[in-house]
Write a structure and sequence with these properties.
single chain, 300 residues, mainly alpha
Length: 300
Amino acid sequence: MLLSEATDRYTVHLADVRRLSGATVRAYRADLADLAAVVGDREIADIHLDALRDWLWTATRRGDARSTIARRAAGARGLFEWALEGGMVEIDPTLRLVTPKRGRTLPNVASADGLAELLDTLVAAAADGDPLALRDAAILELLYGAALRVSELCGTDTVDLDRSNATVRVLGKGAKERVVPYGAPAARALDAYLVRARPALAARSATAGSALFLGARGSRIGTRAVYDLVARTVGPVVGAATVGPHVLRHSAATHLLDGGADLRAVQEMLGHASLGTTQIYTHVSGERLAAAYRLAHPRA
């Protein structure tokens, strides 16, 4: 079987069986296409360890980040493990493939005070009833208040909100459903949006359907619009030129732990399969503790 054919079948397996997100599947497909571009679209059984090493070395020489190289190696490992189980190869050459460790980078986090001031300002600016201003305030409040991924927020429908219990049901990675609480500020912003803004936006299009958040033309809002909103409003608070919606999720997780929340409770809220993924936020909190110590302790 040619590498290109194996890639097609493997990515279908990732999407349909392992239920990985569309973005993850596209990333693995691109990585395996890069492999084919370097080693050639040959029989998968003829791809040996040296060819894989040459592939990663090529990526290193052209300046690919360590995280990118590590992800590409992970994609190749997944492909060959799947091919071995399916009898397409007799030996898995990736078992001896060594890759650089991913560099651990702490996520951008906005200060709790800075976010509170920003969100209060946006809510006040929406008081005149502008539909887009009301929507934007509700989006940011829910992203932060429930620590959602942008894909989860954009995929949420009105029926997923339980306004009496202040919870939202979302579909996370791997098609795993979870119910997440949100706070009183998010509840107020959502109520204002649903009553005063969503009907006006829905009237602009025949395709609004049941989507919770609508774009300027009345259809379900896309992730790009949310990215632009966060970059425009939250970027200055974080002090970074390029930030995305994940900065609000990072900030929510860090502020929860700073406030004494249990790590496993935060894991459940974020929908992380592994506790290790959640633990990065303990490092963020630890950095803040160390900074406070250096500034305030007389013996620091």
